[in-house]
Amino acid sequence: MAEALAMEQPAPAVRLTPRARRDFAVIVPAYNEAENIPELVRELRSTFERFGLEGEVVLVDDGSTDGTGALARREAAAWDRLRVVAHRRNFGKTEALLTGAEATQARWLVLFDADLQHSPDEIPRFLEKLEEGWDIVTGRKVGRYGKRTVSGIYNWLNRKLFGIPVSDLNSMKAFRREVLEEVHLRHDWHRFFVVLAFARGFTVTEIDIVLHPRRHGVPKYSGRGRIVVGLLDLISVAVFLFFARKPMLLFGLSGLVLAGLGVLVGLLTVVLRLQHAMPPFGFRPLLYLVILLETVGFLLFGFGFLAELIAQQHAELDAWRRRALRSGRAGGA
Q1: pLDDT tens readout for residues 169-195
Q2: What pLDDT is recorded for position 98?
Q3: Confidence (pLDDT) at 5
Q4: Which residues pair with 24 in a beta bridge?
């Protein structure tokens, strides 16, 4: 029924240049989504035909155990726009995104979930927005969904911490290939892709997209445990963005503060000793506290110097990588 309604809806009016209709790839991470594969491929193909799209679809079988990959390959045999690549085991959505991007040379990439909670008809709208000059276009979910509270808190924290101009980070998105070439994602960091790209100076905007109920199965890239993992990753990303370029601000400053506290405690101990004012616990604990504060303080300050050397090497490597990318694009042109 849901499929029939989707097929009957009129196509939204979009204006795309011939290059935009051709030079893009839809990346579909799929983990144990065999029930959704036939409808997914059928609706993607319908969208491509109705909008005159000539790009490709890269479906990444992320180590499925329910025959998702085999079923997708059978569907791909009847549609030359669809390619299937596979992981030997389940790695996660971030790795699926990276594998899909490596499998295509398209200029624009669209990340689309296999559960069909978003309509494939949204794809031309994302491409149209990219043609306006934006580097990343994210979808702002409109509709009911079970994780609204958790997702709302997570998105609010990201807006407050990183100042990003979009309100929904965990949804359908489209972006230019060069964004993924400059933003290096670790495991499960697809959630922070927009944050990391925005910090690199890429432009970001969003459009409203309708969220439909899941037709078959249950969410695969979710779970209560991911809330804790997401929070820890959020802290990691914050530390990385705020202190990666100037680690001395974290290690050096905290080391100086601890060393300064050690000096103050030492002076207090000397004053008490001169005044013959014996603390109820004696002078030995104060002496141990001074030693601890000074030792940890100077160790942190030393870590700061080492971190600065690593940051300098990283900056030089990053500059070399950007020059290589520019040279490659110039050679390709």
Answers
A1: 888 999 999 998 888 888 888 888 999
A2: 93
A3: 42
A4: 108
Copy the structure tokens of residue 22. 């051709």
pLDDT of amino acid 109: 97
- Looking at residue 186, its pLDDT comes to 83
Handedness of CA 239, 244, 249, 255 (dihedral sign): positive
Report the C-alpha gap between 182 and 329 in whole angstroms.
14
- Asked if residues 125 and 53 have their Cβ atoms less than 8 Å apart, the reply is no
CA distance 290 to 263: 7
Contact, 113 vs 219, CB < 8 A?
Answer: no
- Separation CA 155–CA 162 (nearest Å): 10
Instruction: With beta carbons less than 8 A apart as the criterion, state whether 82 and 114 touch.
Output: no
Q: Which residue has the tokens 């790795």?
A: 95
Handedness of CA 219, 224, 229, 233 (dihedral sign): positive
Residue type (1 letter), 232: L
Q: Which amino acid is at 45?
A: R
Are the CB atoms for 56 and 25 separated by under 8 Å? yes
Tokens 């037709």 belong to residue? 215
SS3 category, 208: strand
Q: How far apart are the first and last CA of the chain?
A: 47
CA neighbor of 26 nearest in space, from 108, 148, 99, 125? 108
Q: Which of 256, 227, 236, 24 is nearest to 120 (CA)?
A: 24
Q: What pLDDT sits at residue 233?
A: 76
- For residues 255 and 297, the answer to whether their CB atoms sit within 8 Å is yes
What's the rounded Cα separation, in Å, for the pair 109 and 25?
Answer: 5
Helix axes 122-131, 37-51, angle to 10 degrees: 50
The model's confidence at residue 3, banded by pLDDT at 50, 70 and 90, is very low
- Asked if pLDDT for residue 221 goes beyond 60, the answer is no
Mean pLDDT (whole number) for 75-104: 92
Digit-coded pLDDT (tens) for 39-55: 999 999 999 999 999 99
Residue 111's nearest CA partner among 162, 99, 300, 66 is: 99
Q: Is residue 38 a contact partner of residue 75, using CB atoms and an 8 Å limit?
A: yes
Query: For the whole model, what pTM was predicted?
Result: 0.75
Q: Rounded distance, CA 57 to CA 47, Å?
A: 12
